[in-house]
Inverse folding.
């Protein structure tokens, strides 16, 4: 689904912060992306969700070479990728419900066609009582769950999550992990960037470990 | 009395129903993706209101001038004059009679009358004093010819026939005077249109800056929309909706202000018709009342300003989005 071939990245004229990355995110695969702070995890994630171009090498996403993509191609590819940001990026003037429904709204779907799905998902992530609350009034964990629900609402082919359990207590972290596994079973490839070894130790999954700008893969 | 109470109740019930229906619609409508209330929005509404007010005044002034010019033209073309220059040996009375007769025989002329001795004396009194004996002085004499405005005569043929009958007769159809008035009115209309174009241009530029400001201020929203797969057209439509709403509110305020001003000026000139200061205005503009074209122009202007704002903001957003690096819409 996503393939990196000899990818390198540098900002301006500095040294390469990512070097010689070659790996593949396969269909229906599940993996953790980990490594110490400053190892380039965020930059790698940004390349994965098409927010950054590599300075060398080739990336192909969902069968398309990133270098050959035009602006007009991006929305249709991004619609197949769900993203959970570490800082949530919820829109504060919309309610929880409207934030979760946003991906469907930008696809031009009528509210009647998705209302029940959104309500069900919000209840599933345990935010049923905060459906019409503003994100400003939500706790860190609640925002996290709302952000996850927004990434999942249109059943993406790939889910990229940056520290998705960073703001929740261990029982909720386990629940979220179960949610990701269930999603993975239904066919979505999942990449979870995390520092949380307790989380990673809970399941035997592939680990992509970034260290000093290079990538080790533990299958 | 009971009937009155009943109909009052009915009106109240209808009003309550309408208010509830509006509130229900508002609740059901999704929140706009571009937040609708902020300080910059209020400033833009005020700017657009002022611009629309000024543009409406220009439209009002242009229609007033063009209608007044048409009225002048109409008034003047109802009459023409023939001047008979006194020359040696001319029998003035006979010449006046001949001119009157030729005029009356011409189709399109409804009447011809000489300015008699008394009227001519009155006309000349400011220059030559009282007790004037016209027969002693070589004073030109006038014949006033009334014209059927729906079927005016051929002025050139009339002039020719008059000169044939009385070589000293000169026809003045006031065309030179009218054409100067029309030229002046046209110049004012062109100036007014120029001012209108400039005001609309300034409005469009204000909207460009406001849209850029709103995009910068709502950067996070634009980023999130990108990540959830929104197309540029969708983002542009959201900003367009936001600015159309602001512009419509501003333009309605501005247009309403102009309406009130037109109406009050009309009332003022009507109620002060006999006073010297109002006479000055009526001398220029007749009664200072904006015709229906002025009001219709203002309504069209409100729609134009709202439409122009929506279009400008849409184009600005699309240009801005196109200038963002395709794969780095968030940060670099």
């Amino acid at each position: 689904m996503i393939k990196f071939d000899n990818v390198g990245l540098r900002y301006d004229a500095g040294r390469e912060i990512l070097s010689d990355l070659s790996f593949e995110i396969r269909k229906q695969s599940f993996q953790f992306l980990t490594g110490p702070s400053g190892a380039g995890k965020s930059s790698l994630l940004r390349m994965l969700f098409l927010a950054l171009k590599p300075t060398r090498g080739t990336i192909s996403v969902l069968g398309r070479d990133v270098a050959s993509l035009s602006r007009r191609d991006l929305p249709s590819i991004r619609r197949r990728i769900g993203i959970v940001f570490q800082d949530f990026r919820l829109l504060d003037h919309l309610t929880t419900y409207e934030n979760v429904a946003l991906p469907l709204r930008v696809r031009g779907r009528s509210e009647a066609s998705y209302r029940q799905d959104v309500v069900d998902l919000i209840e599933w992530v345990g935010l049923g009582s905060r459906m019409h609350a503003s994100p400003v009034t939500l706790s860190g964990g609640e925002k996290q769950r709302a952000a996850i629900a927004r990434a999942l609402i249109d059943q993406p082919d790939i889910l990229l999550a940056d520290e998705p359990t960073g703001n929740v207590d261990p029982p909720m972290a386990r629940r979220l992990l179960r949610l990701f596994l269930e999603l993975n079973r239904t066919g979505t490839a999942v990449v979870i960037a995390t520092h949380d070894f307790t989380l990673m130790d809970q399941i035997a999954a592939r680990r992509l470990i970034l260290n000093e700008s290079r990538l080790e893969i533990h299958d | 009395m009971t009937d009155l109470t009943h109909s009052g109740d009915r009106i109240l019930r209808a009003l309550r129903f309408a208010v509830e229906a509006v509130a229900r619609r508002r609740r059901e409508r999704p929140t706009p993706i571009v937040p609708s209330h902020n300080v910059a929005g209020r400033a833009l509404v005020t700017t657009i209101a002022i611009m629309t007010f000024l543009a409406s005044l220009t439209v009002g002034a242009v229609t007033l001038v063009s209608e007044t010019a048409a009225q002048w033209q109409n008034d003047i073309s109802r009459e023409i004059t023939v001047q008979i220059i006194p020359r040696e040996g001319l029998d003035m009375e006979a010449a006046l009679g001949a001119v009157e007769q030729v005029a009356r025989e011409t189709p399109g002329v409804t009447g011809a009358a000489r300015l008699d001795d008394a009227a001519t004396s009155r006309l000349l009194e400011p220059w030559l004093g009282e007790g004037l004996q016209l027969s002693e002085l070589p004073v030109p004499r006038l014949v006033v010819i009334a014209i059927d405005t729906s079927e005016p005569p051929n002025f050139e043929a009339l002039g020719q026939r008059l000169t044939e009958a009385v070589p000293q007769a000169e026809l003045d159809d006031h065309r030179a005077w009218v054409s100067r008035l029309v030229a002046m009115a046209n110049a004012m209309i062109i100036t007014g249109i120029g001012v209108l174009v400039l005001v609309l241009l300034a409005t469009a530029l204000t909207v460009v800056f406001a849209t850029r400001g709103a995009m910068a201020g709502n950067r996070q929203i634009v980023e999130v929309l990108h990540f959830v797969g929104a197309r540029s057209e969708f983002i542009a439509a959201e900003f367009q909706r936001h600015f159309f709403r602001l512009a419509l509110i501003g333009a309605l305020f501005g247009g309403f202000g102009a309406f009130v001003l037109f109406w009050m000026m009309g009332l003022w000139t009507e109620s002060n018709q006999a006073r010297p200061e109002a006479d000055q205005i009526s001398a220029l503009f007749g009664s200072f009342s904006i015709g229906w074209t002025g009001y219709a122009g203002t309504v069209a202007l409100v729609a134009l300003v709202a439409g122009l704002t929506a279009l400008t903001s849409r184009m600005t957003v699309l240009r801005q989005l196109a200038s963002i690096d395709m794969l780095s819409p968030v940060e670099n």
In short: Chain A has a mean pLDDT of 89. Chain A touches chain B through 32 residues (CB under 8 Å). The longest strand of chain A covers residues 2-9. DSSP finds seven helices and ten strands in chain A.
